[in-house]
Write a structure and sequence with these properties.
Chain lengths: 265, 353
């Protein structure tokens, strides 16, 4: 007699759930926008690393300013581009806090260039989640400093031309040159495997801060289907196939002290 | 002891319990930054020389959002760069104290003392409907006292407060017995420390729904009305029998005081009305004394800025004259006496009007 064993999952074994620190709210993000995935990664890691009670986030200007509606931690809102300066103030006044900024590419790589470079130069003990979707989404899809050559936007209707609009700025590589930047990496949300690798990078960035090392930054290549004039699935294909040609994935520098040797905090 | 204005204000902030200072070098306030660079680390407190005034004011926003007592200082061109931050601080109701040691403008102007940032200070630095209290010391001892008061006001009303000094106030040395004061710390209940055992807090100025932003603005306006009602400050000298009154603040008031002494020696009954809070402006006090005066002479180190608030307060009840110098020039007492005499010659006694 053959016994058929059914492997129904135990009702107590949770495979997938909303992280505690991700609020139970519908977001305002457009369909196919990458912020939802990235918010979730941040919330999962804050949960897993038990950082919620000590975290002060810095929200920046752009679509993600409302991160504070979705991540259930203390937040201060920074003027456009100034998040690394605001985070510096938070960090210096609260040495015991866990401090991160969540910034877009217009915010970090254009108007906030001085602030991110000097926070890096000072080796501020902050973590930067830098979401690069190559466009100004909130204002209606204008060209960003990170837009690809040839990319059509509402302010580069004929496609970005190097002669008049310059080249995409590899700011994470530039920051990696600074001794005060302890960890710099670039991930992507183009597929589940890449999302897993990106999560590992964000974890390492958070560990870098906890180890007492300098600034940590993870650039996360993301999508803006509405701004790009694509469907969500087309935008994921574009991200996987084209965007990485300009922005190669991987760890750019890791000078962080070993967190296991330093302990937390 | 002999103290330089910039250093006296810096030490007054330290004695008032300043936890963190952020700044950027600019003449004529550099000694303030240098004093903090030495003293703050000595005391285990925060000092950061920022990459720009934008950096400094935003560091201040971050630190003050955690409940720290924060000082920032700069001079005119630097204050223009901080205008953005001041709007955000006012909108998100984060208390800090900002010292402006004014120099001549516009543009790079000069490094000489000036009072040409009165409009900027009192009518709003950045965008949006907001005001911040502006305190104007006219002696180093007063600067020391106002620094402590500024922290108290900032925290009481959850607002940035500006101390409006000028290059003379910052650079001059004078004997002073500094009276330091540390305002009591209150448990604010809005500051960020991490959401342990409570709901998360957000310090923000964004209210995307027009209804929400209007409600927020109404609340801010009610706060500004309350500050106007309770925190207006001014000082009068020789007003009892005065027929002609000089309105001046800061260094210009020092010059006016000497001019008034000389005018009185010549038989001219002159007095001094000295606004200490430039916003809120002491309009009603001035309006009360104005009808009994023959004339008012406003003296400023500017092309004429505060004189507009004086005219608004007086509402035509008394003739208002102006004497100003610009570009880093300080009016002499002799010029001011001449201005008093001209005003006298052109006017009739108040009872005859």
């Amino acid at each position: 007699m053959i016994r058929v064993q059914t492997l129904a999952p135990s009702p107590r074994r949770v495979i997938y759930r909303r992280p505690d620190l991700l609020t139970d709210t519908s977001t305002h993000y457009c369909p196919g926008c990458g912020h939802g995935i990235i918010h979730r990664l941040v919330a999962e890691l804050l949960d897993e690393m038990q950082l919620g009670p000590t975290t002060i986030g810095v929200a920046s200007v752009g679509c993600s300013v409302f991160a504070y509606d979705y991540l259930a931690v203390d937040f201060v809102e920074a003027p456009h581009g100034r998040a690394p300066a605001v985070a510096t103030g938070v960090r210096r006044a609260r040495p015991d806090a866990f401090v991160f900024t969540y910034q877009g590419d217009g915010d970090l790589a254009a108007i906030g260039t001085a602030e991110i470079v000097h926070a890096g130069a000072r080796g501020e003990r902050i973590s930067v989640i830098f979401v690069n979707n190559g466009i100004y989404g909130m204002t209606g899809g204008q060209m960003a400093p990170t837009s690809l050559l040839g990319q059509r936007t509402t302010s580069s209707p004929g496609g970005r031309e190097a002669l008049t609009a310059g080249y995409p700025i590899p700011i994470t590589e530039m920051l990696a040159l600074l001794p005060g930047v302890s960890y710099a990496a670039r991930g992507s949300i183009a597929d589940p495997q890449l999302i897993g690798r990106t999560k590992a990078m964000v974890r390492r960035a958070f560990e870098t801060q906890l180890s007492g090392s300098g600034l940590s930054i993870v650039e996360i290549l993301s999508t803006c289907p509405v701004g790009w004039g694509m469907t969500p699935s087309e935008s994921m294909e574009h991200l996987a196939r084209d965007v990485v040609q300009t922005y190669p994935l991987g760890v750019i520098v890791d000078r962080a002290k070993s967190p296991s040797a330093q302990g937390k905090g | 002891m002999l103290m330089k204005g910039n250093e006296a204000m810096a030490e007054a902030a330290i004695q008032a319990g300043c936890d963190a200072y952020f700044g950027y070098p600019i003449t004529p306030q550099a000694e303030l930054l240098e004093w903090m660079a030495r003293r703050m680390p000595e005391l285990g407190r925060v000092f950061v020389q920022a990459e720009s005034e934008l950096g400094a004011i935003n560091m201040a926003l971050g630190a003050a959002a955690t409940g720290a007592r924060v000082l920032v200082s700069s001079s005119s061109p630097g204050i223009s760069l901080m205008a953005e931050g001041m709007s955000y601080l006012a909108g998100s109701e984060v208390p800090i104290v900002l010292i402006n040691v004014m120099r001549g403008g516009p543009g790079l102007g000069s490094i000489g003392a000036s009072q040409s940032d009165y409009f900027q200070a009192t009518k709003g630095h950045g965008h949006g409907d907001y005001r911040v209290p502006v305190l104007a010391p006219s002696s180093i001892a007063e600067a020391v006292a106002l620094t402590a008061d500024a922290f108290e006001l900032a925290e009481r009303y959850r607002t940035p407060v500006m101390i409006l000094a000028d290059g003379v106030m910052g650079q001059a040395m004078e004997p002073v017995v500094p009276v330091y004061r540390m305002p009591a710390r209150t448990n604010a209940g809005w500051e960020l420390a991490g959401a342990a055992d409570r709901a998360p807090r957000v310090v923000r100025s964004l209210h995307l729904r027009p209804e929400d932003l209007e409600a927020h603005n109404r609340r801010l306006q009610a706060k500004f009305a309350s500050i106007t009602e309770r925190e207006t400050r001014w000082a009068g000298e020789d007003l009892e029998d005065a027929e002609i009154v000089i309105v001046a603040y800061g260094t210009a008031a020092r010059v006016a005081r000497t001019a008034i002494e000389r005018a009185r020696e010549q038989g001219l009954r002159a007095g001094l009305f000295r606004p200490i809070s430039l916003w809120p402006f002491p309009s009603s006090a001035l309006a009360t004394i104005a009808p009994d005066l023959r004339a008012i002479v406003v003296v400023e180190m500017s092309a004429g800025q505060m004189v507009e608030d004086v005219r608004l307060a007086v509402e035509g009840r008394t003739p208002v004259f102006f004497h100003g110098r610009t570009g880093g020039m300080v009016p002499t007492p002799g010029e001011v006496v001449d201005a008093l005499n001209r005003a006298w010659a052109l006017t009739a006694p108040a009872e005859g009007r």
